[in-house]
Fold each of these.
Amino acid sequence: MNDRPGVDLTALVKAYDVRGTVPDQLDEELARLFGAAFVVTTGADAIVTGHDMRPSSPALARAFAHGAAAQGADVTEIGLCSTDELYFAGGTLDRAGAMFTASHNPARYNGIKMCRAGAAPVGQDTGLREIRTLVERWAAGERLPEPRRPQGSITRRDMLDAYAAHLLSLVDVLAVRPLRIVVDAGNGMSGLTVPAVFRKVPVEIVPLYFELDGTFPHHEANPLDPANIVDLQRAVREHQADLGLAFDGDADRCFVVDENGDAVTPSAVTALIAARLLADHPGSTVLHNLITSRAVPEVVRQLGGTPVRTRVGHSFIKAEMTRTHAVFGGEHSAHYYFRDFYNADTGMLAALHVVAALGSQPRPLSELIRPYQRYPSSGEINTAVTDPSSTLAAVRDHFAAYDGTSTDDLDGLTVSTPTWWFNLRPSNTEPLLRLNVEATDVPTLDRVRDEVLALVRTGGMPSPGRAMQG
């Protein structure tokens, strides 16, 4: 790749990470250049790297380590790990870090999630743009700079036991009542981390797909898609389990299923965990992104906390966690952020909080969670459009004529009334608009959803007879 003029990594470098297909978009030579650029951009003298179970991950991670070491950084490789374990390593060792994973994407994908020392995020506005520019120049043939320090070392270190001990120090789960928990690892990294974390917890784990296999032979490791939790729902009912947990491929997200096999929304999980942490930290700030349920800020206010609404995306939320000193933050995509976990997201700590909440009282999960599931919602609906910007503007103009509506532009377009709201925002990487709708009742939800979708799918032209007021 070094002799190609005009290298453009637009398709590979996303808003928050690096992600693409192997080897046509990402190979070991590019990984080496990313390692060098990471050190040059961050100025790090020492970094930590980890990787998931994808077949391409070990070689890509090792190439990155060599590129970083050549620029003078000492590299600690922790090997197979979840993304939140890599954040833990970066936080506890106070080192910049890089995790090789493509999260829930299919097997042919891989990528890099990067952070600065203390697990601080690296996104487009916090270094990723500069990293991309350097890699493009070097891949096109420009010589790398002379390193600031002599050749760095590459050493190995196992962080799994320390990671598990840290999580268990943050949540009291050792005195919970006996629970049976089905866990679907999706052949991802929670197949390694769940046994390490839960071996001292007095619960029975029923494992599904714990074998590490980056080809994902059973289903995609993306629990956000309802098709991928069908096996978990069935197993919860068959084993008469108290709850089910599903993790994505790199195990930084956790989804919850109740004893009936019904999915618990990530917004409800956010509200439940917020209630627990506000009991221990009265008056604290809790973050929620703008597509979480209205129930989240309602619960936070009712319990004396301060809710702060944020954009979607981990870079924004981690920055706000630091700025506001928030105790917790939640996204409707099932990313959960904790002040006691270096402001980083960890699905495993969220799972432990759910287990502790359930196991410390006698009610089933469906009853425990009911106060937090207040409003029906559409879930995220993606629509391919030719021109996202003009369609978004047309939707804005259409709803501006409504009485009693308010709009904001924090992330895409949010239109609100006392009885419903929707958010319509463009994808960072594809010509898509993403719609989320919530309302006080199902008929209103259906009407708002259908009206917005009709506008989106006709390029902003309203369909006759479909107008709906307030």
Amino acid sequence: MTDPRLDALRQAAPALRLKTDPADLEHYGRDWTRRWTPAPLAIALPGNVEEVQAVVRWANQQGVAIVPSGGRTGLSGGAVAANGELVLSLERMNQALAFDPVDRTLTVQAGMPLEAVHNGAREHGLQYPVDFAARGSCSIGGNIATNAGGIRVIRYGNTREWIAGLKVVAGTGDVLDLNRGLIKNSSGYDLRQLLIGSEGTLGIVVEATLRLTDPPPPSNVMLLALPSFEVLMQVFAAFRQRLQLEAFEFFTDVALKHVLAHGAQKPFDEIHPFYVVAEFASGDEATEAAAMAAFEHGMEQGWIVDGVISQSGAQAAQLWRLREGITESLARYKPYKNDVSVRISAMPAFLAETQQLLSEAYPHFEVVWFGHIGDGNLHINVLKPDDVADADFIAACEQVTKLLADCLRRHGGSISAEHGIGLVKKPYLGSTRSDAEVALMRGVKHVFDPNGVLNPGKLFDP
């Protein structure tokens, strides 16, 4: 028997594609967390802005919640539909709409994959510099919804810095055309920036005007082996002082073990406790000499025990695979993930305290560390043993996350660096935001989404 609410939706938007097969409900109703059982009402796949508006207006009339959906590569449960919501997938709205060579902007639909955005910018001799390992499957709309960062934040910043304009369907069904690509615009509140990082709770991004920049300079990649956790920041300071860093990524021997088991090539004969992938602008003898000087200085100080520098693009890709392949190599373990950040200056003290906390709290669990040390972002992945039930494992991890949240509060950090709050981190929002801030955020949501139809229960409870 057809749900009468869906009959009403078909009448409101006759050309709208709807999916109700159980396999589709499961596929579109979850993200990479895999913690909640998907149970959406249906999947709507609009082909244009007007159909998105029709869906939102229908949701208000019928009292049905909407979960906006991009590539569903999120790790915080922000795209989970487990309570009869309608999933609104933007995957059909995936085209480039306009390129402006003077403004150097590319306007795209929200469902366009990040890798396609990269390719589109490259066709015009430019680049969109936000990048991370999920580039082939994540969408630009999802990136905007979480203010995604990635591997080159140290050079280019987060998604926020590269959004010149947004077209958004608010929770009322109204279309908002925010900033319209302007460089200077002091005409009141910048609602564009408010929507970035709002996790689909204020509006549904349908189009984005992206700032592009010059292609990256020639670069080299260096893999460094470190003897201890404590020397990470000294190595970072030495390389940042001498080189124009594009990326500075860290991972442990445990992470390397899993990536090697997943097919990557072993970089050194010996296994070392810690590793850094550093990418830096190169192209001349002076830069190469500076890179070697930084490496030799680290060796002399005892901060670095081995290293290799790429001699080709293929070798650079092999070195990057050691870092970018970590998440995929851990997927089968259903890892419990923490994605945290502190100021770079606070990182040494925070790292020392966190390392001690986790070693004491997880004596029987394998913990995989990696992160963007150059921008203060650390990823902590706790792997579930096969003989531990999912519920018991999550309960144990959440007790430790409470302690980690307290540690972050003391160091002025954030419980979510780049993955959003979603469902996973909602209980710990108070470690990052004051009661007054959360109250204001609830008020903002009510203005944009008065009936609470957009991604309710994510970020904070109604």
Amino acid sequence: MTEQRTTEHRTTGEPAAGELPAGRQFTRRRLLGTAGAAGAAGLVVGGAGGAFGAATLRDEPAALASVGATGVPFRDGAHQAGITTPQQARGHLVAFDLTAGQTRKSVAALLRRWSATAEQLIGGRLETGDDQIAHDAGPNSLTVTFGFGGSLFPKTGLEALAPQALAPLPPFSADALDPARSNGDLWVQIGSDDPLVAFHALRVLQKAAGDTARVRWQMNGFNRTPGATPRPMTSRNLMGQVDGTNNPQPTDPDFDARIFVPAGGTARSPQWMAGGSYAVVRRIRMLLDSWDHLSVERQEKVIGRRKSDGSPLSGGTETTPVDLDKRDAQGAPAIAGDAHIRVAAPASNGGAAMLRRPFSYHDGIGSDGAPDAGLLFVCWQADPQRGFVPVQRKLDRGDGLSRFLRHESSALFAVPGAPGPGEYVGQRLLES
């Protein structure tokens, strides 16, 4: 894991804590469901009593809560949605492999179907193949993002157009990778604030693949539900740590240069990738039983931040820049030499940076009683050889947190820019 700052700003018109929107009334059928979206309806810890006291039980339907009403356009300007979109509560990561005999033409037909289907799903107007799983739901911040693996290019005769930046990631000493859950020809990332909406999109897109592609692997993840805290806050991971404080922000002057391929392409990324980005996907299991045996003080030293509020051990609040030169009262470094935030810091990696947008996962309890849980790590950058790779090499060699992590799968995908009006995702590659 590396540090990130998760942006949860949503222009949803949410009421203040403890308040109900004017005229909001609840039916008996929907009262519990609405209370589950506490932040969206104003029913939060400390304000629930007054809110329930003001609610009237009626048989009239209530309007969608703000979480359900939040929509994200299929195109985020020059980029696909799902990269800088605020993290959603539910995610599916799915890799597909082409079936035997597929061609560039059949892959183009698949991407045309997928793009049209995704746009219809996001707009709430699916025209064909709808099983009505999410028929009565709002958009719930649904996004669908498509990418291409390095193995796609030789299978479709497009080797000459494969980006140099898509070269296989180097091995790392801490890797314990499962090949069956790594790589893939095509990749789909689905995010939504409602699990049913996310599953619906997954189901429809999987059926739309038809005989062209088969699922290679699928991973399901989750994040904190928007509105679960009284104000937007940085998420916590399954270790209980505030996780995401130092992510690059879209307001940073060099954000686009670090995250997206520039217009015109580069020597390492052809023109068809302009406006796109590269996604590194890693399934990182957290050895939670070992971690939980550490004292809170020891956990904080491993990370370099206070567990309570995410503030750096060098002092200040969560957003205070980390002072790597700060000394404690005994003259020792306030941030230990192998602390995660020191090893992952851009200053320790020649300025290398990436946009982390992960999901947590929990796939059950093993026979030994240990949870199979951790992080579905997804990071975005204009060139993984200048973003992910140098940082992971440094972490691989000297991160104190690595003793409590196991990297179990890995993949890299080229995610092209958003299609223009009337285009489908990847058209500039597949019809070049």
Amino acid sequence: MNTLIIKKFQLGLAAMFAALLMFTSCSQQPKTGDNEEAKSEKPKAAPEGVTLTQSQLDAVGIRLGSIEQKNLKSVVKASGQLEVPPQNKAEVTLLMGGVVNQVFVLEGQHVSKGQKLATIENNQLIQLQQDYMAALSSLSYAAKEYERQRELNEANAGTGKIYQQSQTALQNEQAKVSALSRQLRQVGVSPESAAHGRFITQIPVYAPISGTIGKIVIQTGSYAEPARPLMNIIDNSKVHCDLVVYEKDLFKVKAGQQVSFILTNQNNREITGKIYGVNQSFENESKAIIAHAVIEQAAKNNLIQGMYVSALIDVGKQEATAVPTEAVIKTGGKEYIYYLVRVAERSGAKEKSETDEEDTSGKSYVFEKAEVVTGVSDLGYTEIRLVKALPKDIKIVTKGAFYILSSENATGDEEE
């Protein structure tokens, strides 16, 4: 009896354990709806490149070619600003101060060298002219005394000491007259006029160079102090350019090289010039030197000191990896070229990795773009550097690349 009860109990436990396993297995299986939803959420593979038919290539004139090695003009990019040599700019100052009596020029006016700019009233000028007249009288007396003592000395009627004293006095008076004459000329007074008693009280101020009047800091009735600028004059016809050249390009830049300037503040107007000198010391701690370039026909270009420019210095020719300029397209702030990935049968049953020349209308062409960094442009070609390497014999789009870019953008809009 007990044995029968025990067997029934064991059978009951086995049944319960089997039911528990079945429930656990069912709970772990995903629902059919979940599987379908998960499958539908898998990302779609992005389309590879841009596919065009032979008729499309013919219609827009797309041409294929190769990346070439070209002997292109090599340039060094530099920037700087226009400067005027020190001999072509001047500050007008006085050796003797005074009250401004009259100003004859305006700011921005062109003046010639020696033109009268202003007059300064100074009473000390009268004293200087009086001293000059007195010195002339003393010189005349000293000259006569010297002649008298010379004649006596030659006749052995005088003493050698007095003769030497008269000679020294004459030399002193000559030096004094010469010094006062120079002082008068420095302040713009004619010594000849002062010698005849025609005294003036106004100091004339003359232009030291030809050029354009800059800032005028005086006015009628103001006091002009000695050695302080009254106005400045600048001759922009001799303007040149100081270009900043960095250490990596230092040994490429030499005197005599041609330069093309771009005036950034004048609608990118281009002018030309030539390097005439290169400094041999670095500017402060910048590890850069200054290259000086003369500008051709600077007077006719209306150039002003301080204008900023960008420049390309022609340093010769060098062999470079290049493609036709039309092959490079810009998008998204980067530059690209398109290359041919493969030629495929339009039916899709057969694909080729070679770029056969004997294309038929039954083929389609798959293109992808490669990012490049461009350099100089010359003779219709542009220097490039591939960001990622491509096979040497790869075919690139040399004409019509912009159409492929438009097709790619249109395809992207449709997918969105």
